[in-house]
Design brief:
With 96 residues, this protein is α+β, with helices and mostly antiparallel strands. The protein is built from four helices and three strands.
């Protein structure tokens, strides 16, 4: 699946084209000032029953971008904890 990066302006300039790319299997990361703020992807898992990227893909992407970091001994547990936290309902504070 291709991952595309778009600014808010690019998205609002042609939402129809962006959704067409998503329907074709792309994932679009919407950015504000070059920082990711949202992800648009199909709700259907047509490419794989597994969500997200394999850790090997993440490491390869990191290396391709020139990162020299190496996961430490607690990395796997940190990832598992993040997955557990993400699967909990989000209850933001009230702004009243």
């Amino acid at each position: 699946m291709a991952t595309l990066h778009m600014s808010e302006a690019e998205l609002t300039g042609d939402v129809h084209a962006a959704l067409g790319k998503v329907q074709a299997g792309a994932e679009i990361i919407i950015e504000q000032d070059h920082r990711p703020v949202a992800v648009i992807h199909s709700p259907f898992e047509t490419h794989s029953p597994v969500k997200g990227r394999l850790i090997s893909e993440c490491i390869a992407l990191s290396e391709a971008r020139g990162a020299a970091t190496v996961p430490d001994e607690g990395f796997a547990e940190d990832v598992a904890e993040g997955i557990r936290e993400r699967s909990q309902p989000w209850n933001p504070p009230s702004w009243e």
